[in-house]
Amino acid sequence: MDKLLILATEILTFGLVVFASLAVARLFLEITSVRRRMAISTASDELRPSGVLKKSTVTNPFLAWVQSFTSISDPVDRGKLQKTLALAGFESVSAPAIYVAVRYGLALGLPLFYLFAQKFVAKPATGPALILPVLSLCGAGLVAPSAFVNRRASARKEALENEFPDALDLMVVCVDAGLGLEAAFIRVGQEIGPSHPHISEEFRRASDEMGAGRGRAEALRSMADHAQVECVTSFVALLIQTETLGVSVGQTLRTFAAEMRQTRLLKGEEKALRIPVLMTVPLITCVLPVILVAVLLPPMIDIMRTLMPMLLHRH
């Protein structure tokens, strides 16, 4: 009887603890959601930096000198570099000058640091042993910033491709709820900011440009040019064609969202099918030798045990 009473007490205590934990977790989620929405509302009411209003000139004296006396002094070359850096997320007007300064700084600084470090070595390098590392460090200093920018641009492009279907689904919900296209852009940009920052920034940029008085088609084309992602470009072309032909935006977005979900599913399946091929090399190099040893070692031991007495008897 005492054991049953103790068991019932433990079960009751466990149930109360579980219930209290769930209640606390639900309260925490509600508070977090309210705070997030209040933060979004406050941020939307305040003046924040916009992609529409930008500085047109470099104000820093050193960066202005770099811009005037280096390869980016030509506006055409500077514009190409600015576009490349914008794809990586560096949209400041000073970004090309900073990029060139960092590149040449590394190309000169790394070899000089290596030469300076040779003074503290017991046997300093001379001849080819000194020249080759200096040239290698100079080349690395020139190549490293470009590789970093390209890698960051590729990562941003991949993030946009992964985030866009979710943003499109939310836009479909907003349009079905009765919001206009401009209001849907603003709402989607606000709601997906914490979880999908890259596509949220693109939607906010487009909504800012439309709010500043730019035409819808021009703002959408600007969004496609800035994103440089195939799915966003197709989305923009679809919206412009829908507006031109007078077709229902909601039905068009719903169909396109279904295609985007299917495309993302196919990409996931493609990556999953690549796993066996990628696992072949580690299996051959790591697992197969162990299996061969485990299978062949016992027969080899038996053979050695059988042959060794015969060889010793002959000798």
Overall shape: it is extended
Number of helices: 10
- By helix and strand content, what is the structural category? mainly alpha
Radius of gyration from the alpha-carbon trace, in angstroms: 32 Å
Main sheet: strands, sense, barrel: none
Helicity, in percent? over 70%
Distance between the termini: 82 Å
**Count of distinct strands:** 0
Q: What percent of residues are in strands?
A: under 5%
Describe what you observe in this structure.
The chain is an all-alpha fold and 315 residues long. It is 82% helix and 0% strand. The protein has ten helices and no strands. α5 crosses α10. The protein is extended and about 105 Å long. The N and C termini lie far apart (82 Å). About 4% of the residues have low confidence.
Brief overview:
The protein has 315 residues and is an all-alpha fold.
Characteristics:
extended; 10 helices; mainly alpha
Layout of SSEs?
Elements: H1 2-45, H2 61-68, H3 75-87, H4 95-117, H5 128-176, H6 181-191, H7 197-211, H8 216-227, H9 230-245, H10 249-314
Helix pairs in contact: 2-4, 3-5, 4-5, 5-6, 5-10, 6-7, 7-8, 8-9, 9-10
